[in-house]
Amino acid sequence: MVAAGWAATFIIYPSLPPAADLTLLLAEADTAWTEQRGAWQRFGHDLLLGYEYRACIKLGTAHLQDPAAAIGQAFQRVCVDLRTLTEAGLYGYHQVPPPHRLWIWNSDLDRARADLPITI
Questions:
Q1: Nearest to 78 by CA among 64, 63, 67, 88
Q2: Is 95 a domain residue?
């Protein structure tokens, strides 16, 4: 599905596949993105991915009692650009193309920084 462009990667540390599988997955995801296969062909950069949709649902209610708390609930994972292993942060994921996103729970960030050569 990823290779055909009908599924997006959603890789969350520390649940990483073995290196060979991860390399293959990322290569296929990048090719689908670059060649605009499947859903990427029809919607391209405007495709709303599942986790983006869920964030919209969490934040899109008419009367948020505590907007800061709602934002905190909607954004709990830090995005890392797999091309450079650079942190995009809690809110900068949109600067990283979908096939190059690694997600890290904010609570796992210190461990991930120790395990991976991530730069801030």
A1: 88
A2: yes
Distance CA 87, CA 80 (A): 4
Number of domains in the chain: 1
What average pLDDT score do residues 78-85 get? Answer: 96
**What is the residue type of 20?**
A
Question: In terms of residue numbers, what domain contains 97?
Answer: 11-38+76-115
Tokens of 19: 């290196």
Report the predicted TM-score, pTM, of the whole model to 2 decimal places: 0.88
The mean pLDDT value for 106-110 works out to 93
Tell me the three state secondary structure of residue 17.
coil
Q: Which residue has the higher pLDDT, 73 or 5?
A: 5
Is residue 1 assigned to a domain? Answer: no
